[in-house]
Amino acid sequence: MLDVTGRYRLTSRLSVIASLPIVMNKFSMLVPPLGPLQSRRDSWGAGGIGDLSVYGQYWLLNPKNHPFGNVNIGLGVKIPTGSWRTRANMPDETGANNIGRYVYPVAMMPGDGGTGIIAGFEAFKTLRTPNLLRGNTLFVSGSYLCNPRDTNGTPSIIQELGVPLAPYFASQLTNSVPDTYSLQWGLTTKVPGTWDKPLLRGSRLRFMWRLEGLTTRDLIGGSHGYRQPGYALSIGPGFSYQFGKNLLMVDVPIVFNRHINPGKTQVPGLPVRTPTGVAPAPFNAFRNLGLIAPLSVSVRYVRTL
């Protein structure tokens, strides 16, 4: 994913930020689960521009007097500019009926179809002592996206599976527009050997932990439709380079733990063949595809105007 961001400073403490993600998602599954071509792996993708975010950001302390540590708070809006109806030729669970279906999991979609409210914060502290840690910066940031829209009308994976399902899935046939949250913390440090090189002086190594999640219920509006609430924890290296008013950041988060909240939104496992046809199987965590990818690459370019 590539984020293109513009920051306009109204004052030394107040900025307006607009960010537009460019999504290049891809996932694969073993299909069909039954039949002569069992366990053939196929892949599909969904890409394009994502949902545009515009928000204001305010430093609680005067940056001129506090260059080595500060906290800011932000509030803004997310506009549904990304597609939440991307389609691809995909078979059902029997491997047949390869027709244009709405891409699942929902996390693959460039957008979610909802106009949301974003609240967030950032804080940093650049260490000055002891000498061994001098110049290293600790940081933490978090955000919460409140999506008042209930469902977006797109058929869910439950409807697209094509196999008999338990009655309580009847209310899960369209995708929900859920609230989401994220929290990340870590440190940045100068790249060794760049102190006396003007062209490389703005480069820094990043190391970050990240928590990303999806809520069971929304703060505002309904919480109907299909969603897979839970969270994922990731850790990974990164790199940033500052040149003038430009900032380039690259992060490679690697998921090491994920959790799906128990409930009726859990997708059943692979179907099983019975004398009367195909029947659903018990819940299988590996078949639940609502969380983020195990490995991703995030590139962000920021231009301060």
Structure description:
It is a single chain. This protein has about 300 residues and is mostly beta strands. It has one domain (about 1-305). Helix content is about 0%, strand content about 50%. It contains 1 helix and 19 strands. The chain has one helix at about 155-160, and strands at about 1-10, 15-30, 40-50, 50-60, 70-80, 85-90, 100, 115-125, 135-145, 150-155, 175, 180-190, 205-215, 230-245, 245-250, 255-260, 270-275, 275-280, 300-305. The strands form 4 sheets. It has an 11-stranded mixed beta barrel. A hairpin with an 8-residue loop joins strand 6 (about 85-90) and strand 7 (about 100). The longest helix is centred in the middle third of the chain and has 4 residues, at about 155-160. It is elongated.
